[in-house]
Amino acid sequence: MASDTASGDKGSGPNESTETDNSMFECNICLDSARDAVVSMCGHLFCWQCLHQWLETRPNRQTCPVCKAGISKDKVVPIYGRGSTDQKDPREKLPPRPQGQRAEPEAQGGFPGFGFGDGGFHMSFGIGAFPFGIFASTFNFNDGRPGPPPAGSAQHQEEQVLSKFFLWVAVIFIIWLLLA
Amino acid sequence: MTHYDFEVTGSKVARCHIKVDMVNDNFLELIGEIIGPPDTAYDGGKFKLEINIPDTYPFNPPKVKFVTKIWHPNISSVTGAICLDILKDQWAAAMTLRTVLLSLQALLAAAEPDDPQDAVVAKQYKENRKTFTQTARHWTNVYANGPHRECELEKILEQAKNMGFDEHKARVALSSSDWNLERATESLLTS
Ligand SMILES: [Zn+2]
Ligand SMILES: [Zn+2]
Predict the structure, then answer these.
(1) Which helix (H) or strand (E) holds B6?
(2) Which of A68, A107, A140, B145 is most exposed, with minimal Cβ within 10 Å?
(3) Higher pLDDT, A97 or B89
(4) Cα A179 to averaged position of ligand 1 atoms, centre (Å)
(5) Which of A6, A31, A57 comes nearest B6 by C-beta?
(6) In whole angstroms, what is the distance from residue B15 CA to residue B121 CA?
């Protein structure tokens, strides 16, 4: 028969403040220092095992055991203290503690990797599926394909001539269509 | 096992007039005690509770019932069964035996007659509050060692006892019939 009204091995500590300091980092469920600690969005600390078991016990009412705020497995943050290697008991067949989410630092400056490059933007005319796609125009961004031949080269002039020739053919064809 | 070992200790508990004892070195069977809150019909009474800790504690609530007979809308006057949300679906794993006992104390101070455990008591609480308070105080005095006697009720009870009825049965019958001796005798004879 143990009567523990005001005495107890833990509660009767000479300085209550020390106890309060330690209990700051105690799991709210097992009241021991939190192992594989996680903290809920509402700020309450638990062992991952304890919280997981609580959420399993009440699958349709997922609330914080302390403040009854809504809670979910995916929205708890693990706490990694210094020197706390993962001491997870392998016998516990629990899903692993959720990973910490690492946000990328915000990018500084303009928009690297997004631009028109050097003259990679050009328009070309061509005759597609005759006669409906006569003026099929395409926008080409410089995305690794060879750019247009440099102005002034023989190939460039040839292309110019061809381009003009086809343009005229197209115009004549349209006029013929309209008059006929 | 550390959970309730720790939770019921500490000086705060003594100040709140609640305590928990073990029944034969067994952590799963406990006896709790709460003192009736002042300025209520339960003032000064010592109410014993039977507490059973399930294997799944603290993920499931402890099973608690009153051992001491009590007249309260949310507690069965026959079995001592308690109707309290935190002992059912509102239980949370962070709650402790301390929370439970303090909640029970709060329940004694503020009954919830719309969610009754004992329909007869709840009806009296709603329709005849003065009689309810007297009855609750009388029960506290008789069963929980409360300091306040209800002489008026004791006289009526004495009459019933003189008719040859068992004291407790007579008390239940009288309490349930708003201390109308005629109605109480009738129910005692028919039962
Ligand atoms: Zn824990
Ligand atoms: Zn919380």
Answers:
(1) helix B2-7
(2) A107
(3) B89
(4) 89
(5) A31
(6) 30
* Domain membership flag for residue A96: no
Residue for token pair 């597609």: A128
Please say whether the beta carbons of A19 and A27 come within 8 A.
no
| CA dist., res. B47 & res. B140, Å (int) | 9
B51, B78, B109: which is the final residue of a domain? Answer: B109
Helices (H), chain A: 16-23, 48-57, 154-179
Work out how many domains chain A is built from and give that number: 2
Structure tokens at B84: 């309290």
Residue B145's region, left for phi above 0, alpha for psi from -120 to 50, else beta, is left
Q: Are the beta carbons of A66 and B6 separated by less than 8 Å?
A: no
Instruction: Pick the closest to residue B16 from B91, B82, B105 (CA basis).
Output: B105
> A41-82 pLDDT, tens per residue?
999 999 999 999 999 988 888 999 999 999 988 889 988 877
For residue B102, tell me if it sits in a domain: yes
Q: What is the pLDDT at residue A115?
A: 43
User: Across the interface, do B21 and A12 touch by the CB < 8 Å criterion?
Assistant: no
Instruction: Give chain B positions within 8 Å (CB) of A31.
Output: 2-3, 6-7, 96
Q: Which residues of chain B register pLDDT less than 50? A: 1-6, 9-14
Q: Which of B77, B55, B58, B64 is nearest to B136 (CA)?
A: B77
Of all residues in chain A, what percent carry a pLDDT higher than 70? 52
Q: Which residue has the tokens 């997870």?
A: A88
Is the CB of B19 less than 8 angstroms away from the CB of A50? no
In this prediction the ipTM stands at 0.76
The residue with greater pLDDT, B73 or A177, is: B73
pLDDT of residue A107: 63
- Residues surrounding ion ligand 2 at CB below 5 Å: A 42, 44, 64, 66-67, 69
Query: Can you state the percent helix, strand and coil of chain B, rounding each to 5?
Result: 45, 15, 40
Of B109, B135, B153, which residue sits at a domain end?
B109
Regarding whether B76 and B28 lie in a shared domain, the answer is yes
